[in-house]
Specification:
- It is a single chain.
- The protein is globular and about 50 Å long.
- The relative contact order is 0.22.
- The chain starts with 6 loop residues before the first strand and ends with a helix.
- The strands form three sheets. A five-stranded parallel β-sheet has the order 2-8-1-9-10. Strands 5-6-7 form a three-stranded antiparallel β-sheet.
- About 45% of the residues lie in helices and about 20% in strands.
- The chain is an alpha/beta fold.
- The chain is built from nine helices and ten strands.
- The protein has a single domain (about 5-225), classed as P-loop containing nucleotide triphosphate hydrolases (Rossmann fold).
- Bound molecules: cytidine-5'-diphosphate (CDP).
- Cytidine-5'-diphosphate (CDP) binds near residues 18, 36, 138 and 190.
Length: about 230
C-alpha cells in the first residue's frame, strides 16, 4: 500500500459486523471510521420523537419540511476515543441502537431527500482520504472510486444471534425472533428500494464471516488492504 491513504468502503447485510471490523481496521491504520448507518438511525430517531415515522410508515411531507432542522454529525468521545453520533446538540450514540429505531430506519433511509443530504455529508468526510466507511451504498454511490470495496454478509441466524447478544448485554429486553425478523425485513427493504438499493459493487470483494472470529476477519481485511 506504500503508506498512501485510501478509502475503504464496507457494505453489506444488516448486523453482520461491518461496524466492528471497520472500527478495528481504522484503529490499525490510524484512519477515520465513519458509521453511515448511525446517520440514518439519528434521522430516524428525530422522526420517531416528532411523530414523523410510526410503525414503519413515514410522513414524507413532514420529513421533508423538517430536514433543514435535523443536524447530524460525529464528535469524538474522549472517554473511549469513539466518534459518537450527535443529533441537534445531543449525543444519541446509545439511543439509535434501540430495536425501535431498527424497526423504522429502512423506510426513512429510502427517502430520496434524506439520502441526498446524508450522502453529501459523507462525501465531504471523504475529502481527506484515510477513511473507512460502512453502510449499504458506500462502494456504489458515496465513493464509487474507493480503492478497496468489501461486501460483507453472514448467515441470518448467525447475524440474529450476534445482535441479540449485543442488545441483551446492554440490558435491552428483546426477543431473538423479533430481531431475526427485523434483520430479514431490513435486508429485503434495503435491497428492493428504488434509491441506491443495497447491492454488491461489481469491483467489491465478498467477505462471509459466518464462521470467522473477529481476529480472522480483521486479518482477512488487512491482507486485502496490503494488496491495494
Ligand atoms: O448495524 P446494522 O447493519 O444493523 O445497520 P446500520 O448499518 O446501522 O444501518 C441501519 C439502516 O440504515 C439500514 O438497514 C439501511 O436501511 C440504512 N442505511 C442506508 O440506507 N445506507 C447506508 N449507507 C447505511 C445505512
Amino acid at each position: 500500500m506504500n503508506g498512501k491513504k485510501i478509502i475503504i468502503a464496507i457494505d453489506g447485510h444488516s448486523s453482520c459486523g461491518k461496524s466492528t471490523v471497520a472500527r478495528e481496521i481504522a484503529r490499525r491504520l490510524n484512519y477515520i471510521f465513519i458509521d453511515s448507518g448511525a446517520m440514518y438511525r439519528a434521522v430516524t430517531l428525530y422522526c420517531l420523537r416528532n411523530g414523523i415515522v410510526d410503525k414503519g410508515v413515514v410522513n414524507h411531507a413532514a420529513l421533508i419540511a423538517d430536514l433543514g432542522k435535523i443536524k447530524v454529525y460525529f464528535k469524538n468521545n474522549p472517554s473511549n476515543n469513539h466518534n459518537d453520533i450527535w443529533l441537534n446538540g445531543e449525543n444519541v450514540e446509545d439511543e439509535i441502537r434501540l430495536l425501535e429505531v431498527s424497526q423504522n430506519v429502512s423506510p426513512v433511509a429510502a427517502v430520496a431527500e434524506v439520502r441526498h443530504l446524508l450522502v453529501s455529508l459523507q462525501q465531504e468526510m471523504g475529502n481527506t482520504k484515510g477513511i473507512v466507511m460502512d453502510g449499504r451504498d458506500i462502494g456504489t454511490v458515496v465513493f464509487p472510486e474507493a480503492e478497496l470495496k468489501i461486501f460483507m454478509t453472514a448467515q441470518p441466524d448467525v447475524r440474529a444471534q450476534r445482535r441479540f447478544d449485543e442488545l441483551t448485554a446492554k440490558g435491552e429486553k428483546v426477543s431473538y425472533d423479533e430481531i431475526r425478523a427485523n434483520i430479514l425485513e431490513r435486508d429485503r427493504y434495503d435491497e428492493t428500494r428504488e434509491q441506491s438499493p443495497l447491492r454488491k459493487a461489481d469491483d467489491a470483494i465478498v467477505l462471509d464471516n459466518s464462521a470467522m472470529t473477529r481476529k480472522e476477519q480483521l486479518d482477512w481485511v488487512l491482507n486485502h488492504v496490503s494488496k491495494v
